[in-house]
Amino acid sequence: MGSRFRSVNILGVRVDDVALAEALDLAARWLEQDRPRLVVTPNAEFVMRARWDQAFRKVLNSADLAIPDGFGVVWASRVLGNPVREQVPGTDFAEGLVRLAEDRYRVFFLGAGPGVAEAAARCLAAKYPGLRVAGAYPGSPHPEADAEVLAVLDRARPIDILLVAYGAPKQEFWLARNLGRVGAKLGIGVGGAFDFFSGRVPRAPYWVRRAGFDWAFRLAVQPWRWRRQLALPAFALRVLWQRLAGYRAPDWPLPGED
Hints:
Blueprint: E1 7-10, E2 13-16, H1 20-30, E3 37-40, H2 44-52, H3 54-62, E4 65-66, H4 71-79, H5 90-101, E5 106-111, H6 116-127, E6 132-137, H7 146-155, E7 161-165, H8 170-182, E8 186-189, H9 193-198, H10 206-210, H11 214-221, H12 226-229, H13 231-244
Parallel strand pairs: 3-4, 3-8, 5-6, 5-7, 7-8
Antiparallel strand pairs: 1-2
Helix pairs in contact: 1-5, 2-3, 2-13, 7-8
């Protein structure tokens, strides 16, 4: 599918060189169209998973938009000599979609733990009084639960924006299977964003995020995530090894690919 933006290949994963305002402008135009669009949020963990998970890599690279969610992919693009302009955190993009939806589009909150999606929807509706909440439901990312979840979503129609919080890669696989069946115009996996929106988990201060250390702040708040963070040094070493080998991140697609 791809986007209209220049895209960079980071260790086999497409990352679009898009700013937050540009991504939201594109989303606004998509919401006026009739076909579903998938947005993904590549970060270092995504890239390392995609190196061995071909199905996940395929979903990421075929999405309509791949925003540079993690500071790691922005850093890698610079180290590899083909920089993207800025980090676009998925949480910021998701909240931007909510602002965009005020008084115009209906948003459904799917996933997270019991009560979390509902709490996120309530908090955002209080912050953005014009928000039209189509519904909130935890559901399950497993394929055997698809019929049940889709029945809930069908009763909530029309749905314009679908935010899915099952964590990667489950949320991306769920969207790849089901987005076209929901009737939503835009779907995105938002990871732990519902925890932030609901106030259950504090988000790193802006200056910490700006410096690229939001991962460290979140690890301090949720130390159980330490196993997931092991992907970060492995990613950095792989990028540095590529740089020392004289590799330059090419524009997407790789030369010789369709």
